[in-house]
Structures are given as C-alpha cells and as structure tokens.
C-alpha cells in the first residue's frame, strides 16, 4: 500500500493530468461519445427495438474500443521514448513496476471517465422503461474491463517503439485478433490441424465471448480472472520490454 | 562517492564503453571530456541506472546501481542530455511532480521548489508550459529538477549547452557553489568550462580513459605550456628570431604575420620557464614590444592530440 501512495500515485497523477493539459482528452471524449451514440441509435436501432435495455449500446463497445483505445495507448511509452523524457522518468527513484502501473492506471482511469460520461443513455433508458439496472451495471464493469485489456496490450506495444503510428497500427491488429479469436475467422485456421484443446484455448481468449457473458448480467469469476490475468500478463511484458529496450 | 569499476557497454558490434574505472570523491568536480561518440553519455546513463552495463559495476554512496537501483537513484541528481522535460507541463507543475516523486510532501515540497526556482532564476517563466520556453530556460528547468533534492551526487550531461555567455556564467557559479558538498560529474565540449569549474578533467576516447588529471596537469601536456608569445613590428623580426634562438632554453620559434606586426612564439625545451629570459632579452635589445605573455597551455590542442577525430575513426574502420 505504501508503495502505491509513495510511487504509483505521483506517476499516475502526472500522467492523468497530462491528458487534460492538451486537447487530446476533450477530442477523445467527444469522439468517443459521438461514435457510441451513433452506433447505438443508427446501427443498433435503439429506439426501433422498443426494448428497455442497453444491450445494443454495449454490443458495439469491443469494436469501438478496438480503434479508440490504441489511440490512447499509442503515446503511453512511444512518446516518452521519442521526446527523451524516458531517460528522466527511469532515472527517478521509482521502481520500474510502479512507473508502468502508474502510467497504465492513468490511461485506464481516463477511459473510465469517457465511459462514465455515457450516463445520459442510462438515464434515457430508465426514463423510457424499467430496465434491469443490475445488468447495466455489470455491463459497464465488463466494458471497463475490455477497455483495460486493450489498454494493457496497447501499452506493451507502445513500449516497443518510438513511433506512435506504428504503435497504433500494431495495437489495433493485435487487439483485433483478441477480439475475434472466438470467431470462425481465426478458429478455422487452427481447427484443421490443431488439437481441439488448443482451438478451445484460443477461443477462450476472445474478448467478445467474455464480454458477452458479462453483459448477460452474470459477473462470472472466470471472466473476471480472464481480464485481470490478461492485464497482469501484458503489464509484466510491458515492464520487461521497457527494461530491455531502454538503450533504444 | 561514485565508484565505477571496469564498466563495459556494447551496442551490437560497437563497444561504446570499454573497461572504464573511475572514482569520484566528495568535493570533486569532474569534467568529462571526449569527442562525440566517445562514450560520455553512455557512461552517464549507466551510472544513473538508465542503461544496464554489459560488465562492471557502479556504486553510488555504497549502493550498487543495479542491485539497489531506487536507493542509489534517490542520491543522484541527473540532468540528461538535452534536458528532457514534459513539454505540456508548466515549470512549476513539472518541478512539483519531481518533488513529489522524490518523496517531498506539502509545505516541504513547496519550499524545495521555491528554493530551486530561486537558485536557477526561473521565477519569470514558472507558469509557462515548458515547450514554450527558450533553450536557456529549458536547460535551467532541467538543472532545477536535478538539484531539487540537494543530492550528494550530481551528474550533468552538457549543462551549459545552448546557453548564452551570461547564463553559462550563472550556471557555472551555481555548480561552483555546490561543489564542496557533492561529487559532481559534468560532461562538456567546452574546454574553457573545464578550466573554469572542474577540479579534475578526464578525457575519454572510444570508450576508454586517455587522460586523467587536474586541468593544470593537462595544460602542462600542451606544446604551448610555458611558451612565450611576443608581438613586434616587422623590421625587428629577423634580428629577434635569431636572438631568441640563441637562448639555451628555446627549442623552436614560430612566427605569424598580422597587419604590419608579427607575432612570435618561442617554445621552451621540456617545459622550462622562458618568460623571464625573454623579457630580459627584449629589454636588453630595446625591442618595441607590443605584447608579451607566457602561455599557460592550450587545452584544445591537448584534446586534439590525444583523441581521434571522426575522420580518423572512419579511416580506421575502413581498414
């Protein structure tokens, strides 16, 4: 706990404030809310469905995050590397894990704020009918976890390069594979030759599968464990990458 | 306070630092010199724990930089090359962040920031984003973050690069004032800086130390050390050259024309003191001397003599 307040907190605070020091935060939030709305109302036909729930709203989250989250994570390390502040940051008396975790949590908290600002749609649906607010809460938690998973992947990839565009593109591709790994597109490639156990293991990496399970209103421990272990894994990889690639 | 033992760093086939050992004590200001690419910055990056060495150890006040990184880093103030800082933060926000990361809280942190802002004369730009500052102010922000926690060990990579002469003078004064209580390493290209602030000069070339001594000792290596330069009018020159050569201690006389005067430099045999003999000779011969002075030695000439130029290195690599 002490290490959290002593080391992680200052790093978190600086990084978090950094989003709001530039137009980045505001541009991101506006675009995030706009696309969320557009998909819900025009693609998902929120009104026409006539059902008082937010399933069409949440269904598009993994796909929107696919592009929006790498846009946040791409600068996380690549920018430090390019501007030379990496050297400053890593020679401050802060353990490397705390720096990695602090920066990651700041980015995650920022996406959390963007997500929380979608609350008008929750008010709308409550005004129009009697939705199951338990399911909606679970879905919000699930959506936040999906964003966290993408962010951890993106942060790790950002640490491998000093070029933000490369970080963005590679992150989108890797996140895409994690998103669709439960679909025939990926599974058919393996089903032909790999044992069923491997195919199933790959399928179990699908963000959509886990997220859909949560949006049914069931916060299953297995789904939570999936997201948290995936985040932990990529943060650990992030630490290793930063440590190995310091010399550039 | 800083103990560097057999430090080695390779980047692919290139050895940046080779088996470098160095001890820096409290009260020393070590000027770290060398051509570009000699390994100065790489060494500093290893001492501050940014880069891991391939071999060798660095200890800072008894803490091994690799085994005990955070403790060692807490004792170091470091100004990296180019003085990087977060451009979107104001100078005050940035320094407050550094204070908090370094473990200062509340009023203590504020007092630290205020003190260091005073020292580095940052008051007029305190509320401006760092990316909008001039090069000199940026450098001073970097300097401020390095000395904010009053570290026993201070490592600065080209602290006066990009500063105007007044600012250079101020920064050197700052370093000089802190010198007694700290072990300081300063890398620089400016040889006059070494003479101005350093108690010791270390020249490295291709990753190894090629010279280590006080600035005076390095100057003594110069061909110009104790040489005497005098300026005479043209018609006296031929006679003067001949007379100077008759002095037993003079090894060689060189001449350089400018305008209607000529500047003669007499080089001594093995560092002998020439000035008295030459001035006595000038008085005896009744020369119309416009200038007469003893040379302390030229550091740039020593530097060139013991380090390899880029061109020479490229030539060596081709072979």
Which characteristics define this entry?
heterodimer, A: 248 residues, mainly alpha, 14 helices, globular, B: 319 residues, alpha/beta, six-stranded mixed sheet, four-stranded antiparallel sheet, 37% helix, 27% strand, elongated
Mind explaining what this structure looks like?
The complex is a heterodimer of chains A (248) and B (319). Chain A has 248 residues and is mainly α. Chain A is built from 14 helices and no strands. In chain A, helix 5 runs parallel beside helix 9 (133-158), helix 5 (61-83) packs antiparallel against helix 10 (164-180) and helix 9 (133-158) packs antiparallel against helix 13. Chain A starts with a helix and ends with a helix. Chain B is of the alpha/beta class and 319 residues long. Chain B has twelve helices and 14 strands. Chain B has helices at 40-47, 69-74, 91-101, 106-119, 135-147, 165-178, 191-197, 215-220, 237-246, 275-285, 299-306, 310-318; strands at residues 2-11, 14-24, 29-33, 55-60, 63-64, 76-79, 153-157, 183-187, 200-205, 208-213, 228-233, 250-258, 261-268, 291-294. In chain B, the strands form three sheets. Chain B has a six-stranded mixed β-sheet with strand order 6-7-8-3-9-10, with helices on both faces. Chain B has a four-stranded antiparallel β-sheet with strand order 2-1-4-5. In chain B, strand 1 (2-11) and strand 2 (14-24) form a beta hairpin. In chain B, helix 3 (91-101) crosses helix 4 (106-119) and helix 4 packs across helix 5 (135-147). The radius of gyration of chain B is 24 Å and the shape is elongated. Chains A and B meet through helix 1 and helix 6 of A and helix 2 and helix 3 of B.
């Amino acid at each position: 706990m002490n290490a959290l307040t002593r080391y992680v907190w200052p790093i978190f605070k600086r990084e978090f404030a950094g989003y709001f020091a530039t137009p980045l935060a505001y541009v991101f939030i506006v675009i995030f809310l706009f696309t969320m709305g557009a998909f819900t109302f025009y693609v998902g036909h929120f009104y026409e469905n006539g059902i008082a729930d937010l399933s069409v709203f949440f269904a598009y989250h993994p796909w929107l995050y696919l592009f929006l989250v790498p846009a946040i994570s791409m600068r996380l390390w690549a920018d430090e590397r390019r501007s030379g502040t990496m050297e400053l940051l890593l020679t401050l008396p802060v353990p490397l894990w705390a720096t990695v975790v602090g920066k990651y949590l700041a980015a995650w908290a920022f996406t959390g704020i963007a997500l929380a600002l979608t609350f008008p749609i929750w008010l709308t649906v409550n005004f129009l009918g009697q939705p199951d607010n338990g399911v909606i809460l679970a879905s919000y938690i699930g959506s936040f976890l999906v964003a966290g998973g993408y962010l951890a992947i993106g942060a790790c990839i950002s640490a491998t390069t000093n070029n933000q565009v490369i970080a963005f593109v590679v992150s989108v591709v890797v996140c895409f594979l994690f998103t669709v790994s439960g679909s025939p597109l990926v599974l058919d490639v393996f089903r032909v030759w790999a044992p069923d156990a491997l195919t199933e293991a790959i399928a179990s990496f699908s963000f959509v599968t886990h997220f859909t399970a949560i949006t049914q209103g069931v916060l299953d421990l297995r789904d939570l464990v999936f997201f948290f272990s995936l985040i932990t894994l990529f943060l650990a990889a992030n630490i290793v990458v930063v440590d190995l690639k310091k010399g550039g | 306070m800083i103990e560097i033992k057999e430090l080695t760093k390779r980047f692919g086939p290139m050895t940046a630092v080779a088996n470098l050992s160095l001890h820096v004590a409290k009260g020393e200001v070590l000027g770290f010199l060398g051509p570009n690419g000699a390994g100065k910055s790489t060494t500093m990056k290893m001492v501050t724990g940014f880069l891991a060495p391939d071999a060798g150890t660095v200890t800072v006040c008894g803490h091994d930089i690799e085994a005990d990184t955070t403790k060692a880093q807490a004792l170091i103030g470091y100004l990296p090359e180019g003085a990087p800082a977060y451009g979107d933060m104001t100078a005050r926000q940035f320094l407050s962040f550094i204070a908090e990361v370094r473990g200062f809280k509340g009023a203590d942190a504020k007092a630290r920031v205020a003190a260091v802002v005073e020292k580095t004369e940052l008051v007029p730009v305190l509320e401006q984003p760092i990316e909008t500052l001039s090069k000199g102010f940026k450098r001073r922000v970097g300097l401020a973050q390095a000395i904010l926690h009053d570290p026993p060990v201070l490592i600065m990579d080209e602290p006066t690069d990009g500063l105007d002469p007044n600012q250079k003078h101020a920064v050197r004064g700052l370093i000089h004032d802190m010198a007694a209580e700290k072990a300081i390493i300063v890398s620089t290209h400016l040889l006059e800086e070494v003479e101005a602030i350093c108690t010791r000069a270390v020249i490295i070339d291709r990753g190894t130390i090629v010279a280590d001594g006080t600035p005076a000792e390095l100057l003594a290596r110069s061909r110009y050390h104790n040489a005497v330069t005098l300026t005479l009018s043209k018609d006296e020159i031929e006679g003067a050259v001949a007379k100077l050569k008759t002095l037993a201690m003079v090894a060689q006389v060189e001449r350089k024309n400018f305008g209607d005067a000529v500047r003669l430099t007499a080089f001594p045999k093995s560092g002998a003191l020439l000035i008295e003999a030459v001035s006595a000779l000038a008085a005896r011969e009744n020369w119309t001397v416009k200038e007469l002075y003893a040379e302390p030695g030229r550091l740039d000439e020593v530097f060139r003599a013991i380090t390899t130029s880029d061109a020479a290195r490229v030539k060596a690599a081709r072979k």
